[in-house]
Design goal:
mainly alpha
């Protein structure tokens, strides 16, 4: 069931990100709601379908974005891997893991985007990119991390109920 629900849920998240959140930038930075959703989904301990959600998210974002596949797949794959690694290490505080994954995932996603720009066009001024795009995006992502964590935590608890032992 979580496999089937991932497609409409992530399609709605992509529509929300591209239609509404992209119109509310902070300086030149915009939030990456799909990255936050993948982090919130991968942090939950009972969730098992995180790789399928990641593949669907990469496919949807590659379809609507001008970034190449390797940037999107690299950033979202790194978010899922980091969430799984930290979930095993700091499993008692999933909210702290969520903030750490969103922080590191945003920085890594922007690093891959800058590398892509450097390989295809030219290297933009790194200090300006960091101050005008990365830091505002990081702030927006961290502000959105808590509501997304709560919302997708409830969805994960609904889709993966805790088994009762008698």
């Amino acid at each position: 069931m979580p496999f089937l629900l991932s497609i409409p849920i992530l399609a709605f998240v992509v529509i929300l990100q591209t239609a509404i959140l992209s119109q509310m930038p902070l300086l030149y930075g915009a939030s990456d709601l799909l990255l936050i959703v993948l982090a919130a989904w991968s942090v939950r301990p009972r969730v098992q379908a995180y790789w399928f959600w990641g593949i669907v998210a990469v496919g949807l974002m590659t379809f609507v974005s001008s970034q190449p596949l390797w940037v999107t797949a690299g950033s979202y794959g790194a978010v899922i891997l980091l969430a799984l690694y930290l979930r095993r290490r700091i499993w008692k505080v999933p909210l702290l893991v969520m903030f750490a994954v969103v922080f590191a995932g945003t920085l890594f996603s922007h690093l891959l985007s800058v590398i892509n720009l450097w390989l295809t066009v030219s290297l933009p001024p790194v200090f300006d990119v960091f101050n005008q795009i990365t830091l505002p995006s990081l702030l927006l992502n961290l502000v959105l991390a808590l509501p997304v964590y709560v919302l997708f935590g409830d969805l994960a608890d609904w889709l993966y109920p805790e088994e009762l032992t008698v």
